[in-house]
Structure formats: structure tokens, C-alpha cells
Amino acid sequence: MNKNRMFGRISAYVFLICGSIFMLLPFAWMISTSLKQEGKVFEYPVRWIPNPVEWGNYLTVLTEAPLIGGLMNTLIIILPPMFIGLLTSALAAYAFAKLRFPGRDFLFMMMLATMTIPGVVTMIPTFILFKTIGWLDSWNPLMIPGMFGSAACVFFLRQYFRTIPSELEDAAKMDGLNPFGVFVRVILPLSKPALAAQAIFGFIGGYNDFMGPLIYINSPEKFTLQLVLASFQGYYVSNWTLIMAGSVLALIPTVILFFFAQRYFVEGITMSGMKG
Questions:
Q1: Residue 274's pLDDT is what?
Q2: CB-side exposure of 139: number of CA atoms within 13 Å?
Q3: Domains in the chain with CATH codes
Q4: Which of 90, 119, 177, 236 could form a disulfide with 172 if both were Cys (CB 3.0 to 4.6 A apart)?
Q5: Where is the ABC transmembrane type-1 domain (predicted)?
């Protein structure tokens, strides 16, 4: 290995390590704050290691805030759209990637055009629509639209499906499978990385959603985890130690999910852009 190549590799490692440390600082501050006493959050200079360590913040959050109930409400809201929406998006992506029908490319471009519309533009009309049909203060606005898939998910899966050789489909058709059979028996088993990546995106997106539940849910017993955490923040006083303790606890499910699915996640992201 020549000196220039070694210097380039060392520089890349140094840059990545510095970037990783920079991105981990907010998480370190969150954990540090969750273990501090209430009056020592904004002390200067910053004390990264709390003294004394206040483990009681976590006990307070678990006993005084309905975190478990908020977590269960969140899972009820996000799991059905995640699975059903993933299936409907996969069906649409398969049609756009492998089937031939009149207007396919035009419909695909029209679907992509919807991704350019900001969510704030449709927020008020959507709210009026759900209010008219009586869906306010319910989970329906947060669940049912997601069951029909999303344009981003369709686009992502379409890119992945196009990397699957057409010879496999031809062989399956020669064995007597119809297009839906090819989709179920050939396409889906070969698309586990892409499906896992989209499932992770859907789970994290719904898990961290704050604006949707804030708009449509009014009853405290229906609050999601994000609304429960926001209840620690008042108009005049915010208990940051409890907010950070609750945030650390709320972060655990997503970290566990990514830890077990990271291989599929990275593979799905990598393979989706290999063919235009």
C-alpha cells in the first residue's frame, strides 16, 4: 500500500470518527440530562457526568406518566398501516415495475408528482375532510390512510423489483403461475431486504409522529407515546430531566428494531438504486 492510499484511508477514518462523535453528542446530552437533578440541567460549564446520578427520574416517568399506555396506543396505530400499507405499496410497485399496461409510465409519473406536495399544504383540507366524516378524536385518520400505501414506498420498491431478473418470472409463468402467483412466490421472497427497509421506515415514521396525533387526538387515554412525552412540557415550566428520561425510554424500541434488522436495512437501501 503506497503512502497516498494509506493517507487517504487514515483521513477517511478520522473524518468518519469525528462525524460519529458529533452526531452522538445530542444522545449523550440526552442521557446525561436524564440522570441529573432538576436544578442542574443548564449549569455552566456543562457537566457531562451527573453528580449525583439521579436514577429516580426514570422511576418517576414510569410511575407518573402513562408511558406503557402511550406505547400500546402507538403500536396499535402504526402496526396495521405498516403491514397492510407495505402490502398495497408492494402490489403497486410490482405493477409499475413488471407489468405492462396502457398509461403505466404516465400513472407512475403522476404518483411521483404527489411527492412534491408539502404536507402542510394538504393539512387543513385533510382535517376538514376527517372532521366532516366524524373521525376527529379517533385513531382512524392516523391508521386508515396509511393502509393504502405511500408514493415513496412504491417508488422505493419499484426500483428494487426492477433489479430482479425477468428470467425468474418467465420460469415461474412457464410453471403455470399467474402474475399474482409470481408476485407472491417469486418477487416477495426475493425482496426481503427492501421490504424490511420500508417496514423500518414506516415504523420509525409512525413511532415518531407528533403532529398527526396532536391534531386529531384530544382524549388523554388515546394519547400516543409522543403526546405523553410532550405532557411534561408546560407553558411556563418544563421538566427537562423527565422529558429526557422519557425520551431515552422511548428510544429503546427503535434501537432494538434497527439492531436486529440493520442487515436487511442496509442491503435494501443499497440494492434499491442499482437499476433505474
A1: 47
A2: 19
A3: 1-54 (no CATH), 66-271 (1.10.3720.10)
A4: 177
A5: 71-261
